[in-house]
Write a structure and sequence with these properties.
CATH class of one domain: Mainly Alpha
Order of helices and strands: HHHHHHH
Distance between the termini: 72 Å
Helix content: 40-55%
CATH architecture of one domain: Orthogonal Bundle
Number of helices: 7
Shape: extended
Mean pLDDT: 83
Low-confidence stretches: none
Number of strands: 0
Radius of gyration: 32 Å
Length: 175
């Protein structure tokens, strides 16, 4: 119902068309600020909400595009990846800080809701770290073959002929 009313209202008085917005060109000064804040652990979306910074989609496109190396400077994509990795290390530090924080409520007793909140914060950060940095924070999965070190493991696949089973059906009795 609301969708239909919205369609009718838009037909009578169409909403204004959105402009494409400001076109951002790459700037070392802006890139440096963004990378410093990423390395400090801030999210790209939160950083790019500020008026003097480009949208997050523009920053991501800067990281994807191949830019020419100027004056021997490291390309933005490499610096972006390094800043994100440093930000993730900061996230790992937050896991310890949240775990060590007190869970005592205003009445001087342990606050169960605060304990659950901290557990959720720690678990979500641990999960994210295990997915984004699996070599450092993922579960270690190993496979081990145990046996006689002098005798190699032999795998043998053999085809063996098997005689088919034949069953004779009983003859139907005449009625």
């Amino acid at each position: 119902m609301q969708r239909e009313l919205r369609r009718i209202a838009d037909a009578i008085d169409p909403p204004p068309k959105r402009s494409r917005g400001r076109q951002w060109t790459f700037s070392e000064e802006i890139a440096g600020e963004i990378l410093d804040r990423l390395a400090a652990g801030e999210r790209l979306e939160d950083i790019c909400r500020e008026v003097h910074l480009p949208p997050a989609s523009t920053v991501r496109s800067w990281a994807i595009e191949r830019e020419p190396i100027r004056n021997g400077a490291t390309p933005f994509a490499e610096r972006y990846a390094r800043a994100k990795a440093i930000g993730l290390e900061r996230l790992a530090d937050e896991v310890i800080a949240i775990s060590d924080a007190s869970c005592i409520g205003l009445n001087g007793e342990a606050d169960n809701a605060l304990v659950q909140k901290q557990r959720l914060q720690v678990d979500s950060r641990k999960w994210m770290l295990s997915k984004l940095l699996p070599k450092q924070y993922g579960d270690k999965v190993t496979q081990e073959l145990v046996g006689n070190p002098d005798a190699p493991i032999v795998t043998r696949i053999e085809l063996v002929p098997v005689a088919p089973i034949t069953r004779r059906l009983p003859k139907p009795e005449a009625e």
